[in-house]
Recover the amino acids of this structure.
């Protein structure tokens, strides 16, 4: 069992990692206002590959490029690359808090996908949490108002893709973290190349630095979250992922002047309650709940 000191350090690392992911999201939202999604994803991935290269060399290039269950890795990377592109596409139109609210619904979709695709048994308590989470998504989307737009649907599809990644991660628990992150970054790099023909704006020197910083901050966030999960039990540190919505509200209001609607605030509250309930129920069932890094 982790010591009290290690647990506190793990919580601190998780909080720091989530803050860094929030900064990454703010940078991404600001940059996609000027550059295309493909350009942002590509240059972000280049910077991230430079950061992770020493870890890949230390682990062994051959070991990294030849992981176990390669086809499952390809499926996970494809989903992850699409999810990153969908996130930047959605956040270029939606307030940051709205986008993150829909992404935090991923654990709800993961339960449904696990039941449908893997045949996992879902007890009544978890189905109840799923229903609460689904109601939260419905309230947040506000289908009777102006919130159910194409960008909102894009965000919803992205959150389902994120949930599918969570399912893939359960099947790849034995794969080293460096391998998972390296493949994910390579996948995003390829996605950026695929989307690049849709537009290119030559960045200034200052913006090149910001695009590089985007990848560096994302990699630092990945490392903090990974370290957190090694220092403390997942059931202790994972709930702190919901500080994402707090930072999204703060940064969205302070930097972009966005404030979510009442329906979005109520919906996000229901989604957070559902996610925490699923975490508690899975812990009681003896399952290991792990957090996948946000985009």
């Amino acid at each position: 069992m982790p010591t009290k000191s290690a647990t506190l350090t793990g919580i601190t690392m998780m909080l720091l990692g989530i803050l860094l992911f929030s900064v990454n999201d703010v940078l991404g939202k600001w940059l996609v206002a000027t550059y295309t999604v493909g350009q942002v994803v590509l240059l972000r991935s280049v910077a991230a590959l430079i950061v992770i290269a020493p870890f890949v060399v230390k682990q062994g290039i051959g070991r990294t490029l030849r992981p176990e269950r390669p086809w499952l890795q390809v499926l996970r990377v494809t989903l992850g690359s699409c999810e990153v592109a969908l996130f930047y596409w959605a956040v270029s139109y939606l307030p940051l808090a709205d986008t993150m609210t829909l992404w935090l619904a991923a654990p709800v979709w993961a339960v449904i996908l696990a039941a449908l695709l893997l045949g996992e048994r879902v007890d009544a308590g978890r189905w109840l949490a799923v229903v609460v989470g689904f109601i939260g998504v419905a309230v947040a989307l506000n289908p009777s108002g102006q919130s159910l737009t194409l960008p909102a649907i894009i965000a919803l599809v992205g959150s389902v893709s994120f949930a599918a990644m969570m399912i893939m991660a359960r099947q790849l628990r034995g794969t080293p973290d460096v391998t998972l992150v390296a493949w994910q970054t390579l996948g995003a790099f390829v996605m950026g190349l695929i989307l690049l023909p849709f537009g290119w704006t030559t960045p200034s020197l200052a913006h090149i630095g910001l695009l590089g910083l985007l990848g560096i901050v994302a990699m630092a966030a990945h490392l903090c979250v990974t370290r957190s999960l090694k220092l403390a039990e997942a059931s202790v540190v994972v709930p702190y992922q919901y500080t994402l919505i707090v930072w999204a509200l703060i940064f969205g209001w302070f930097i972009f002047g966005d404030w979510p609607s009442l329906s979005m605030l109520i919906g996000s509250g229901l989604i957070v309650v559902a996610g925490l309930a699923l975490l508690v129920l899975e812990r009681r069932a003896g399952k290991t709940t792990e957090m996948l890094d946000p985009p």
Notes: The radius of gyration is 18 Å. The chain has a mean pLDDT of 82.
